[in-house]
Amino acid sequence: MNLQGRNQKQREFFNSKIDTYDDDHSEFMKTKEAITENLEENVERILDLGAGTGLELISLFEKYPNVKVTVIDISENMLEKLKTRSFADQVTIICGDFFETDFGKDYDAVISTSALHHFKQVEKAILYKKIFDCLKEDGYFINCDRIALTDEFQEAQLYLLENEIDKHKHIDTPITLGNELYLLKETGFKLITLNDVDKEEYKLIKAMKPRRG
């Protein structure tokens, strides 16, 4: 199944989870709040990739009530729930595929949590270039996401994705921390920092787009 087909499968999966998503993800709230804790104080414009129902934006708007956020998510049902949040009028909502949607430009930060582990490493390389290009100089990419704790687990999940996707509603394909750091460095990010969160298999990675020259 190609990337477009897999993304459509993801859309159908998350649309079907709308009634239980917030409850299911309540155990990840500290992980989501870690995004806000790592933002720069002067942040004004943010792009959120995979915002879902907007759980990570609750703490963000509590700390930065005047920030402007653009969200991109493939699930229209999730985004309809986001529209009911008290901060919805400060959010530009785009329903679309990360690989087909124009991100815009000049963001102070791009954030994502529990979203990008659905893509292969080669696909992440493409996505990270789009993220890099849409940031301002000195802007940050902050990703709090699942990682593969071993090379063996990364390869096992990739095998399932490439050979048994039709048997599953949903397959996660996290990559190892070493591979995450390699992709970010190859893309051009600098000042890459790591933070542990409350989940062993999760890591918060913050990376800066440097000034030219």
Using the 3D structure, state the CATH architecture.
Answer: 3-Layer(aba) Sandwich
Q: How many helices does DSSP assign?
A: 8
Biggest sheet layout = 7 strands, mixed
> What is the CATH topology classification name?
Rossmann fold
Give the number of domains: 1
- Main sheet strand line-up: 3-2-1-4-5-7-6
Task: Describe the global form.
Answer: globular
Per CATH, the class reads Alpha Beta
CA distance, first residue to last residue: 42 Å
What would you give as the CATH superfamily? Vaccinia Virus protein VP39
Strand elements, count: 7
Structural class: alpha/beta
Order of helices and strands: HHHEHEHEEHEHHEE
Strand content range:
15-25%
Mean pLDDT: 94
Which spans have pLDDT < 50 for at least 5 consecutive residues? none
Describe the structure.
With 213 residues, the chain is of the alpha/beta class. The chain has one domain: Rossmann fold (3-Layer(aba) Sandwich), CATH 3.40.50. The chain has helices spanning 3-16, 21-24, 29-37, 55-63, 76-82, 121-134, 151-163, 177-187, and strands at residues 45-49, 68-73, 91-95, 107-113, 135-146, 190-196, 202-208.
